[in-house]
Amino acid sequence: MRRTRLLSLAAVLLCTPVLATATPATAQVGAQPDTGEATALRIMITNDDGFDAPGIRILADRLAAAGHDVTIVAPLTNQSGTGTKMSTGSSVTVRHPRPKVWAVDGTPGDAVAFGLSAVFAGKAPDLVVSGANFGTNVAGIATHSGTVGGAVAALEAGVPAFAVSTGGLSVPVFESTVNAMHPTSDFVAELIEHLRKRSRSARLLPEGVGLNINHPVVGEDGKGLAKGTAVTTQDGQQILKPNYTDSGDGTWKVSVTVDLRTPAKGGDVEALRADKVSLTPITADWNTGPVDVAKAAALLRGLRP
């Protein structure tokens, strides 16, 4: 990652100890902004759970209620775990079931690409928000997440982006996780206002930098508020461990277990375990920081083809 940019972003986010939680509200996607055209952002929302999943509807309604011009451009079907995959076919099926909603038969990356090229042709949105995902996207899970992949596709195109997920460190429970998507969406609305007030340019975030946001499920019913925020790094552990058993007929049975280890200091897993919102700065490339580049260069010195 480009550490200079990420450190400057961390300074912006840490100007206040905890981002306040906005007052819950509801509105329909595409509703006229209630704060005036001058203050409304043009926001494209995508996800990997499908264009009509609870998380994307809750988040879209909340941001519309906050006064933003919201358009959903998301996969037609569930695309969880597709990461940054983008299709290479010669055509794509797209449905337009209602105003301000587009459903793309492809991955989150396909949906973002279509949205930027066709729906927002000529003028990119101010922000792309991917989520709210059902379940967490921290540590190794984030690397393979379609939710994060949608945000990465936007960053590659030069558009500021958030990946937003709701969940804990165990298998998500449907009702409590969906309930927690409301405080998650309130937080995102408040985060946008926080960044709008503190950013020094028209962009919400430094160029090329996005946020992977993980909001905890607090309380048995999921309606509790997070206990603060933390600007984090991505924990290096895998968390989900695949297991393979030979069936003896050329096929292997696959099972997945949770293998949660001691969280890395300052990482996203540590924050989520403490019921805090994890804010992990991300970029669209896989560059390491200057220290790691120098170490690798020393190991590779003298290598010849």
Folded structure, characterized:
By secondary structure, this protein is α/β, with parallel strands linked by helices. It has one domain (3-234, 262-300): Stationary-phase Survival Protein Sure Homolog, Chain: A (3-Layer(aba) Sandwich). Helices cover 30% and strands 22% of the residues. It has eight helices and eleven strands. The strands form two sheets. It has a nine-stranded mixed sheet with strand order 3-4-2-1-5-6-7-11-8. Helix 2 (54-65) packs parallel to helix 6 and helix 3 packs parallel to helix 5. It starts with a helix and ends in a 5-residue tail after the last helix.
Task: Find the count of extended strands (DSSP E, 2+ residues).
Answer: 11
How would you spell out the order of helices and strands?
Answer: HEHEEEHEHHEHEEEEHEH
How would a crystallographer describe the biggest sheet? 9 strands, mixed
* CATH class bucket: Alpha Beta
Q: State the helical fraction.
A: 25-40%
Give the N-terminus to C-terminus distance in angstroms.
Answer: 28 Å
The outline comes out as globular
Give the key terms.
nine-stranded mixed beta sheet, globular, Stationary-phase Survival Protein Sure Homolog, Chain: A, two-stranded antiparallel sheet, 30% helix, 11 strands, 305 residues, single chain, alpha/beta
